[in-house]
Amino acid sequence: MKDMKILKCLVAFVLCMATGGAGAQVLECITPGEIWPDDKGEHINAHGGNVLYHEGTYYWYGENRPARGFTTEVGVSVYSSKDLMNWKNEGVALPVSEKRGDVIERGCIMERPKVVYNAETKKFVMLFHLELKGRGYEAARVGFAVSDSPTGPFEFIRSLRPNAGKWPMDFTKKDIKRAMALDEAKYKEWWTPEWRKAVDVGLLLKRDLPGGQMSRDMTVFIDDDGKAYHIHSAEENLTLNIAELTPDYLDYTGNYIRLAPGGHNEAPTILKRNGVYWMITSGCTGWDPNEARMFRAESIWGPWVQLPTPFRGKDADKSFHTQGTYIFKVEGTDEYVFMADRWMPRSLKFSRHIWLPISFEEDGTPVLEWKDSWRF
Asked: Are 81 and 30 contacting, i.e. CB atoms less than 8 angstroms apart?
């Protein structure tokens, strides 16, 4: 039976290569790094996103990227599937605004969209990294949108920087006093040992306190108790924040911690298995791949301990030339899938999707190994 599955995967892989991904063919397996056609034969244009399971169907959300350029011209795409391999294009879940001056007007930057279902409000909630049109990566906001349907249309609610005026939960009165004493004017030269120490103590945290912490690369995690957490790069991408959301998932409770201050982490992905939290992140090297990092904790609030990369084998030091975006569990199983992008900056639309199954060592440590093709 196993040999038959392998044979089917190889046949599907050869067919996909021979057709160049064209046509509404039925896929029998995942082929990481190749063109992944939807029901219309087009490469799935849903990057930096996530997969949500709801009432027997999987929904894949992601950035609709242009063939040229990098600003958002369409919005957030959504696809549906019953088997996680064959996907129907459901259109645009959250479109850009055509109104000049809107915060999500065409030409803004909408990245890393994550959609979760709130069982209490019966709403689908989308969070995403938002940058305002013409302002580069200066705004560093999180956007919120809601819908009654998994395919949308989502209604944009607002954008903001998280936890304005709030110190992290793990900051004592002594820590706050020490951070408040820092003078940013004395640390104009970055990357020095003195500057790094000041960042660790709270230099940039204090700077952003009044208006809220920066929010760039991000994910959303729903714990076993239904509580939701927004995990985002803050402090100029130097620090990760884990921030608790309100019960409706549309605001913040004010409870948050900093993870790896000054560690320069982005693209956070997270899973919880057997009571242990595992987070896989990337370094900050633009579109270029780098060696992933991994963290472990027995509480969402830490302490988090950094471990070696979970990638094994050839090109593990480049994370198989990928950057993670999400980890999801296959419904009804103990199987977890690591979603990643292999960015193609010359044509982001055709950036490749890298989905790999996660295996686990005896102590529960996640491991990622390359597979040319595989199936659920």
From this structure: no
Q: Domain extents for the chain? A: 2-369
**Residue 222, Cβ neighbours under 10 Å: how many?**
16
Q: State pLDDT tens for residues 69-84.
A: 999 999 999 999 999 9
For 332, which DSSP code? T
Alpha-carbon distance values, 124 to 84, 115, 136, 331 (Å): 20, 7, 29, 18
Q: Which residues of 307-326 are buried (b: 16+ CB within 10 A; e: fewer)?
A: eebbbeeeebeebbebbbbb
* CATH class, range 2-369: mainly beta
Q: pLDDT digits over 198-256, tens only?
A: 999 999 999 999 999 999 999 999 999 999 999 999 999 999 999 999 999 999 999 99
Q: Which amino acid is at 297?
A: A
CA distance 371 to 351: 18
pTM of the model: 0.93
Tell me the C-alpha distance between 303 and 117, whole Å.
28
